[in-house]
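Example 9 (inverse folding). The structure is encoded as follows.
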């Protein structure tokens, strides 16, 4: 921070290697918002809300080409106000404050206590905190250090990759049994996992959505993410209607170490076969456990020859038939 207590940062100075297929790099416009006129930002001591010495501020960098097409990325600016005792400024340009700091840590675990790796954990507050997000480690743990104790924060986790992880035809069978009431789920987390279309209801529509995912019609669920995270401390009023479960935890930061854990829910996986971290392997369908086929129920008499039409889609493999013949059409 200069001696006058303010500094101007230009968006173009934060560009790393932007390019366009038509507009030359030298003619691209850089700004801090969609408004191309916001080419710079001014920061003062008022932005040093942490301790008057260091502050991390999240910003957006927008790039605009000649045709008006835009793209953006997020980055961080670290403000530093160093002491300058030689010029009579032992505190620097900004007044130092004694900040009370805390740490927040926790784990993202599945219902069966497996760590969820590579989830993005974020802390937000009513005022911009500039706290960079963290990625959960292989055991599902995360940690934030040097969190100001000046207010309340919300903590949330998000992961949206590999939607097929743990999803198989067996999940469809189990969800169907839940819908029919023959084997209803007793876990609120499994009910949330079964809600593939994110409409706060488990129905035949969810079976259709998951079947499209399995068959490759979808490369991801159109109305849902791959994972949901619910604060572990949340108490369900009705486990059969878990839709009021929050996706973030509210916390008032006090001095010292604080812990906030989450339960990770893989959408579509109701039999816990997903691999939440890199030390686990996903279930290989079509293995020794066999292939689950669904046929329409019917009645027949003893000695009656029975035929069933079975449709396969996107199946590669072999069929072993122990009888004398098989009619394939």
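The amino acid assigned to each position is listed next.
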């Amino acid at each position: 921070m200069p001696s006058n207590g303010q500094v101007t940062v230009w968006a173009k100075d934060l560009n790393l290697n932007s390019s366009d297929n038509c507009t030359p790099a030298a003619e691209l416009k850089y700004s801090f918002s969609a408004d191309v006129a916001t080419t710079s930002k001014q920061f003062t001591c008022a932005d040093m809300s942490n301790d008057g010495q260091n502050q991390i501020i999240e910003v957006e960098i927008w790039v605009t080409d000649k045709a008006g097409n835009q793209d953006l990325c997020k980055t961080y600016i670290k403000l530093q106000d160093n002491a300058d005792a030689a010029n009579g400024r032992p505190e620097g340009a900004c007044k130092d404050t004694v900040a009370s700091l805390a740490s927040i840590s926790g784990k993202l675990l599945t219902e069966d206590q497996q760590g969820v790796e590579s989830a993005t954990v974020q802390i937000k507050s009513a005022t911009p905190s500039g706290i960079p997000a963290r990625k959960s480690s292989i055991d599902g743990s995360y940690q934030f250090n040097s969190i100001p104790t000046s207010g309340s924060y919300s903590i949330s986790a998000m992961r949206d990759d590999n939607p097929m992880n743990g999803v198989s035809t067996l999940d469809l069978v189990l969800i169907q049994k839940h819908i029919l009431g023959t084997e209803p789920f007793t876990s609120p987390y499994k009910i949330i996992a079964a809600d593939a279309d994110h409409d706060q209801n488990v129905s035949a529509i969810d079976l259709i959505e998951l079947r499209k995912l399995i068959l490759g019609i979808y490369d991801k669920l159109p109305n849902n993410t791959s994972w949901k995270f619910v604060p572990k401390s949340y108490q369900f009023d009705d486990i059969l209607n878990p839709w009021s479960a929050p996706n973030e935890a509210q916390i008032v930061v006090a001095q010292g170490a604080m812990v906030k854990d989450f339960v990770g829910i893989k959408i579509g996986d109701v039999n816990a076969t997903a691999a939440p971290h890199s030390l686990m392997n996903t279930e290989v369908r079509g293995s020794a456990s066999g292939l689950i086929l669904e046929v329409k129920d019917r009645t027949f008499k003893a000695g009656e020859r029975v035929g069933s039409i079975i449709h396969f889609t996107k199946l590669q493999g072999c069929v072993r038939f122990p009888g004398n013949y098989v009619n394939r059409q």
